[in-house]
Amino acid sequence: MIPRLRPKFGSTEYRAALERRHSVQNFEHSFATLMGVREAIAFPYGRTALLMLFRALGLRGREIICPAYTCVVVAHAIVLSGNIPVFVDSETDGFNMDFDRAEAAIGEQTGALIATSIHGYPVDLDRLAAISARFPHVEIIQDCAHSFAAEWKKRPVHRAGRAAIFGLNISKIMSSIFGGMVTTDDDALSSRLRALASDLKPATAMRQAQRLAYIAAASLALTPAAFGVVDCIRRAGLINRFTEYYAEDVIDMPLDYLQQIGRVEASVGVVQCSAYPAIIAHRRRLADIYEEALRPYPGLRRPPLVEGATYSHYVARVPAADALAARALAAGVELGRVIDYSIPDMKAYRKYSRPDADFPQARLLNESVVNLPLWVDDATARRVAAAVGELT
Ligand SMILES: *Cc1c(COP(=O)(O)O)cnc(C)c1O
Residue 119 — left, alpha, or beta (φ > 0 → left; ψ -120 to 50 → alpha)? Predict the structure, then answer.
């Protein structure tokens, strides 16, 4: 069985975590250097990073424009920071938020626009700059949880705007087990963020031990050999705690979302910062391999290969994604179904939909997108492509 996801942790990460080798400051410094920014401030989760960024920007009771097709924790952070989400549908021929619709949604109450490079596809920075020039009261926040150092025409996406947020859980391009980061070149903003981060409760020894146990368990659970066993556990609903974020009808955060990130996560994070260039190079190579190996199968629409994209997911579109995923699982390949919901259609968020709003593109993506494993070696990728292609 080939699982869809496997964090790229090696013995260096495990040893660093066990020894609690690096401080949170080391991690922030390594991350800032990797991203080429002045400041990086670490938080326990990406969603906490976003929530604290709203706070540091003084945003409360404002409308925040965000994609309908994004991770639901973004909407949770908006609501739990006392703001109001305004969802915008995706582009007709892509995954990112439609900037024409986003611009039309801007009003006096708008406090920020969250530009998200979904699946690692860079948002159009020229279009975004034009919006920003026309509406200077709207803060531009880059959500780079899928994109890290993605580039639009050679310009890094995460530096276009006031700040960027990153998620670092085990399903992301690089990981610190859990964790989130804000990057910014604005010194005043970074001081406010640092003050907010240091006001959080210190990471307890108990939580640190749990983080260690978590990487051990998750790494084992996501190993091909253990996958049969894990599949049973998954059916019992337990494994979802590793990788799933949401319940349909609640807006909430993990219990420890206001507890500082600790040395265990920071130690893994520092090692992953040095692994990052190799991780991205591997993903880009696999995208090329999938492009070629999937070409003979017209029943499956390949994603575009875009210069500067970082492929958090390699997403193919098919008429019925759930059915294909079930057939692939039976054939020994687990396909991802990221993202398989449209936030404004979820029970908890229906009341935030404007009466005239509709999200046909987001819904279409939810139903049609599968993602192929990006942790595998080249030969396995070709095998996966052939196996999945034959099922379409
Ligand atoms: C994962 C993710 C986040 C934040 O994630 P956490 O799980 O809170 O670290 C934010 N935005 C997007 C698009 C994501 O996929």
Answer: left
pLDDT in tens, 111-142: 999 999 999 999 999 999 999 999 999 999 99
Residue 47 Cβ contacting ligand 1 at under 6 Å: yes
Residue 232 has pLDDT above 60, yes or no: no
- Could you tell me the pLDDT band of residue 223, with boundaries at 50, 70 and 90? low
70 lines ligand 1 (CB under 6 A): yes
Atom of ligand 1 nearest to the CA of 77: 8
The finding on whether 46 has its CB within 6 A of some atom of ligand 1 is yes
Average confidence score pLDDT of the chain: 93
Which region holds residue 290: left if phi is over 0, alpha if psi is between -120 and 50, else beta? alpha
Cα(45) to ligand 1 centroid in Å equals: 8
Among 337, 154, 380, 158, which Cα is nearest to 245's?
Answer: 337
Whether 175 lines ligand 1, by a CB cut-off of 6 Å, is no
Ligand 1 atom having least distance to the Cα of 178: 9
Cβ of residue 146 lying under 6 Å from some atom of ligand 1: yes
pTM over 0.85, yes/no: yes
